Amino acid sequence: MILEIQEKTGASLRKICNTLRIPRSSFYHAAQLSLLDLSEKKAGDQIEIIFKRHRGRYGHRRIRQQMAEEGVICSSRRVRKLMKNRGLRAIAAKNFICTSSDLN
To answer: What is the rounded CA–CA span in Å between residue 27 and residue 19?
Structure first.
């Protein structure tokens, strides 16, 4: 929001923060990615690479296993959450249904 105001008005960050009555340090602190965010991004990128490498056929269990083989430890729940956030959904195998009517 502050960056949008700065773009529109051309005012300095100091003026904008004083007007909004927030410390500048809060703006700079919020602008940085936390270690958790960086970790989530790295793990999500790895998941997406594995998912695309196997053409969407790997679900969260197999992706977690593949990541463990590559040396990245990650829980199934976290893999499932990251896949959901990125819109990755594995192709489910269809069950065989016999359609012949020959019962003799």
So the answer is: 13
> Could you tell me the pLDDT band of residue 49, with boundaries at 50, 70 and 90?
very high
Contact 22, 7 (CB under 8 A): no
What does pTM read for this prediction? Answer: 0.63
**Residue 57 is assigned to a structural domain of this protein:** yes
Residue 58 has a CB neighbour count (10 Å cut-off) of 21
CA dist 78 and 60 (Å) reads 9
Q: Which two three-digit tokens encode residue 10? A: 């051309």
Burial class (CB in 10 A: 0-12, 13-18, 19+), 99: exposed
Q: For residue 59, give its domain range.
A: 35-86
Write out the two tokens for 42: 């790295």
- The alpha carbons of the chain give a radius of gyration, in whole angstroms, of 24
